[in-house]
Amino acid sequence: MWIGSGKIYKDVPDIVSDELVRCTVFSSMSSAVSIPLNTASPIDLVQTLVQNVSEDFQIKPAAERFLLYVPSHSLSALNILPIPCATYLNELNSASGQAMLDKKLSIEAIGSQNGKPILVPFEALGYWSYINKAIDTKRKWTKALIWLKGHEYQLPALSALA
């Protein structure tokens, strides 16, 4: 069989790429979500604490974060772990297809428990993407709120929003 034989694959069959999408899609309705982007008001989003983005992920090349071991933690553990920055997340997403073809089953997160690495399922990629989007959205709303507070004297009707 050609999967897991250490080859670099190009133009993989649709069924393979569809399986990768299925394994990495994250539902925003998941119980792991602490930030409901689709229903949170801008004020709620600005006041919500989001996870830390960690540069520590970049210590290792993205492809080396994928391991042959079964995940040791579920998505619910991701709420307390640092997340990769958007640039490194793109590298992880790029390496994920090859990792799946190489029969990798988990992604090594930042941190350890009892001296062992924290291994999370491929769905973590979707979760991290969702949280990165929440961080970016929060940043934009915070910037807009600061602007609004700086201009409320010019726009008295808007002062109730600030």
Summary, kept brief:
The protein has helices at 14-24, 42-47, 86-101, 124-151, and strands spanning 53-54, 66-67, 83-84, 106-113, 116-120. It is α+β, with helices and mostly antiparallel strands and 162 residues long.
Q: On the 0-100 scale, what is the average pLDDT?
A: 76
Strand line-up of the largest beta sheet? 2-4-5
The total count of helices amounts to 4
| Terminal residue distance | 61 Å
Proportion of strand residues: 5-15%
Helix/sheet category: alpha+beta
Low-confidence stretches: none
**Secondary structure: helix percent:** 25-40%
- Oligomeric description of these chains: single chain
Q: Would you list the SSEs in sequence order as H and E? A: HHEEEHEEH
| Structural Rg | 19 Å
Mind describing the biggest β-sheet?
A: 3 strands, antiparallel
Task: Provide keyphrases for this structure.
single chain; alpha+beta; elongated; 162 residues; 3-stranded antiparallel sheet; 12% strand
Notes on the protein architecture:
The chain has 162 residues and is an alpha+beta fold. It contains four helices and five strands. The strands form two sheets. The protein has a three-stranded antiparallel beta sheet with strand order 2-4-5. It has a two-stranded parallel sheet with strand order 1-3. Helix 3 packs antiparallel against helix 4 (124-151). The longest helix has 28 residues, at 124-151. The model has no long low-confidence stretch (mean pLDDT 76).
